[in-house]
Each structure stands twice: as structure tokens, then as C-alpha cells.
Design brief:
Layout (H helix, E strand, L loop, with lengths): L1 E3 L5 H7 L2 H32 L5 H28 L7 H34 L2 H6 L3 H19 L1 H4 L4 E4 L4 E4 L2 E3 L6 H37 L2 H39 L4 H11 L2 H12 L1 H33 L1
Parallel strand pairs: 1-4
Antiparallel strand pairs: 2-3
Helix pairs in contact: 2-3, 2-10, 2-11, 3-4, 3-6, 3-11, 4-6, 4-8, 8-9, 9-10, 9-11, 11-12
Protein name: G-protein coupled receptors family 1 profile domain-containing protein
Main location: membrane
Subcellular location: Cell membrane
């Protein structure tokens, strides 16, 4: 994220001319888009039409799937933009909208995974407190609106600013790769905007989510069955991997780049841009989180797989196996 002056620095120009990086990122985006739309399309169908009742965890998962599918729909525009040499042809309003979708997905995903972690923490570690909470589904709905409100209020400058910029040296118009310094009134305002994204929308949820899942693992390890232990550990590993490999590099580099750019006039924008592409991988991993986090989701997915197996002509073999195992 580069705030411009009257003259662009060499690092920004070099990045915009780096066709290799543009092709690499676009290739990754194509892969992510395909997995995103297939996996989350199936997940949305299962969550909406094949899973009931709509528990708080299911509500959070539906919210997460919506943001993931929105990202999947927005990524083709980013792919086209990069493959055309960072030439944006769709106007400033579309640029602002798609940028908002892009970042909203990241931070709504982080907050929603935190909410799912809190829900599991209360249900497993603090069950008596969880039972005393009434209107859990209403609270889940309200929590989703609060999360969206927090993200959109933090990202408000993206909605009210022209994020396109014409680069006369290259004769291209960029979208969000170069930000005008007048987007915010002062350096402290820029620092507040960028640091709030890192600390409020990433670091705090990361700490809460880590605490919740570590507490769940410790609780289940002490008094639950082996299968429950393994499932809880798998879920915790998946969530922590998403934070570590998808969200942490991007937000850490955003913090470093912001400090260097605001106070030292230096840039690591190429590294930040590459890490931003990895943040989109969370939209491919979320269906795996559903699988381990939600018993109903697992059962419905297994039913679909079993139905496909039965329709392939293996029904007699399946029945024989089931009889054999039940006899044991």
C-alpha cells in the first residue's frame, strides 16, 4: 500500500513493471477462485438447506461462506487487472467496491473464526455458562452484524476515496496499488487507519482465537474420548494454520510497510502484495474448518458421498461391509 507524492518512488515503478510477479499472483488467484466457488458453493448449499437447526456455529459459518463467495466473485476482476499490466478500466467506483470486498473478506473471516472459537469455548470449557445464555441464535445474528459494522467502519476510507491513480510514466491507471496522500488528512490519521487494521482486526482476534482453541484442547484432552481429542486437535491446527500462513504474513508486512512508508519513506510493497495473495487462501480452507467444527456438516457431507458411492453400483458391497463391521 503506497501513498504517493508528486513523484513515484523507484520501488513502486519497479513493482508495476514486474510482469513475473503479476503472472504468479494471477495464477494463484485463478486456482483460489476455482476452489473457492466449488467448495463454498457446496458448503452454502449444505449449511442453508441440509443443516438444521441453525445453531450459532452454523450462523457464523453461513456468514463466513458469504464473504468467501463474494471474494471468489471479485477475484476475476483482480486477475484481469494484473494481467493487463495493472491497467484498471472499470472506473473508480468499481475499484473502491472490489477493494472493499477484498479486505472485508479477510477481516470478516478473522472475526468470524474468532466467534466460532468463542462458541466452541463456551460450549466445551464453560458449559454451565453456555446453558444459561438464552437466545443464542439471536446473539449470533447480532454478532455477525457487529462484525460487519466494525470491519466497514474501519475500512470506511476505502469507501469514500477514489482509489484509482494515473501513472504518466507507464501510461496506466492503477486500482489501490497507489494511494493518494490526501486520502487521509495527516500522518497520524494514516497511522491510525493502518494500525487499526493490524491490531484491532487481526492481532486481538488472533489472541482470542488461540486462547479459545488451546483451552478446548486442554479440556478435551483431560476428560473426553480419543476421537473427540483428535477432532479438536485437527480443528485447532487448521484454524492456527489459516492464521499463521494466510493472515499473519500479510498483516505483519502491512505493519512493517506502514512504518517504513510513513516515517522512513521506504517500501516493501512487492513482498506485501505477494503476502496479500496468500490471505485469499483462507477462502479455500474454510470448508475444511466447517468439516471439523460442525457435526451436522460432517454428517450431511458424508451422506452425499455415500449416496454417490451407492449410485455407482457399489451398494451391495457397502451393505456387506456394514454387516461385517456391525457383527464385530
Amino acid at each position: 500500500m503506497t501513498a504517493n507524492s508528486s513523484k513515484l518512488d523507484n520501488a513502486t515503478i519497479n513493482f508495476l513493471q514486474n510482469s513475473g510477479a503479476a503472472i504468479s499472483i494471477s495464477t494463484l488467484y485463478i486456482f483460489i477462485t476455482a476452489i473457492n466457488l466449488v467448495g463454498n458453493g457446496l458448503s452454502m448449499w449444505l449449511l442453508l438447506f441440509r443443516t438444521s437447526p441453525k445453531s450459532p456455529s452454523i450462523i457464523f459459518m453461513i456468514n463466513l461462506t458469504l464473504t468467501d463467495m463474494a471474494l471468489g466473485a471479485a477475484l476475476p476482476f483482480q486477475i484481469s487487472y494484473q494481467l493487463q499490466g495493472y491497467q484498471w478500466n472499470l472506473g473508480p467506483k468499481m475499484c473502491s467496491f472490489l477493494t472493499l470486498v477484498f479486505y472485508s473478506n479477510m477481516y470478516c473471516s478473522i472475526l468470524t473464526m474468532m466467534a466460532i472459537g468463542i462458541d466452541r469455548y463456551l460450549g466445551i470449557v464453560r458449559p454451565m455458562l453456555f446453558r444459561r445464555i438464552r437466545k443464542k441464535r439471536l446473539i449470533a445474528f447480532i454478532s455477525c452484524f457487529v462484525m460487519w459494522g466494525l470491519v466497514l467502519s474501519t475500512l470506511y476510507p476505502l469507501m469514500t476515496t477514489d482509489l484509482t491513480y494515473h501513472v504518466p510514466q507507464l501510461n496506466i491507471t492503477t486500482c489501490f496499488d497507489i494511494l493518494k496522500t490526501e486520502m487521509l488528512p495527516s500522518v497520524p490519521a494514516w497511522a491510525a487507519f493502518l494500525f487499526s487494521m493490524v491490531f484491532l482486526l487481526f492481532l486481538f482476534p488472533f489472541c482470542v482465537t488461540s486462547f479459545c482453541y488451546i483451552s478446548v484442547i486442554r479440556k478435551l484432552a483431560s476428560d473426553s474420548k480419543t476421537s473427540q481429542k483428535k477432532r479438536a486437535i485437527r480443528l485447532a491446527v487448521i484454524v492456527l494454520l489459516v492464521f499463521t500462513f494466510c493472515f499473519a504474513p500479510n498483516n505483519i508486512l502491512l505493519l512493517i510497510h506502514s512504518v517504513l512508508r510513513l516515517y522512513y519513506k521506504k517500501s516493501i510493497y512487492t513482498a506485501y502484495k505477494l503476502s496479500l495473495s496468500f490471505s485469499c487462501l483462507n477462502s479455500c480452507l474454510d470448508p475444511f474448518i466447517y468439516y471439523f467444527a460442525c457435526k451436522d456438516f460432517r454428517q450431511k457431507l458424508r451422506e452425499i458421498i455415500n449416496l454417490q458411492s451407492l449410485s455407482s453400483g457399489d451398494s451391495m458391497k457397502m451393505e456387506n461391509k456394514e454387516t461385517l463391521y456391525s457383527a464385530q
